[in-house]
């Protein structure tokens, strides 16, 4: 018996200390993440209105309803296009900033902190600043004041009569996220051995060739992680869209992320159909997983081709 206990405790009680430090986090992950996910999957097969307790089994009825719901399909299609645009733009912007800041001869810490600082800002507060100060659509708004100074007319940025609201939302998202991914790329750049650059310089490599054949390939693992995080973040868009576009009349029908739509049908309306909302989150999760796996497969195949 004592031998079994000794083996479970591990050498120098390593197993005990492992669970002392990891156990609370694992327990929190289990309670607040995995159990709600499993319960959400279970709930998606039931009719559950105004309660988290399943009432009537409907099978795949919730899934069938959402896959024929024009508003839900439109939000999914719109944000697939949005992801196809915002992911490469954020990727290129954060990589470009990382390269510039990494090569800065002076005040590198200042620039790194200055670009990262927006990441610490609340999405709600940033959305309020964008909406009420920069792009409020009135003649005294900051951007409209600048436009009038250049001889242009005022623009109704968030009214929905045009597509200028996408400029507001894209600039807001870039301001909030580019600094965070810049830090990830800078961490990747720090891992590239200086010997590699010195050898390339001796061989005459300069500028674009150094980036194409040394820097970018060495950042492959960082790039894959950044792309996956950006893709997930694009489909999880909620705070900045909701707080920028919501008005007294409710959320408008345009620029409606899938999560905002699911929030409105599961919690925002009078019916509070939690079963339908759960089915929508499962569909969204499957879509993100499929696109993420396809992305990893493409990157993996390209890596094998370059290696061979």
Automatic annotation (TrEMBL):
Segments traversing the membrane: 16-39, 79-101, 113-132, 163-184, 219-238, 274-294
Membrane topology, from the record: Multi-pass membrane protein
Keyword line: Cell membrane, Membrane, Sugar transport, Transmembrane, Transmembrane helix, Transport
Domain ABC transmembrane type-1: 76-295
Localization annotation: Cell membrane
Alphabetized InterPro entries for the sequence: ABC_transporter_permease (IPR051393), MetI-like (IPR000515), MetI-like_sf (IPR035906)
Superkingdom of this protein's organism: Bacteria
CDD domains xref list: TM_PBP2
Listed name of the protein: Multiple sugar transport system permease protein
Organism: Microlunatus panaciterrae
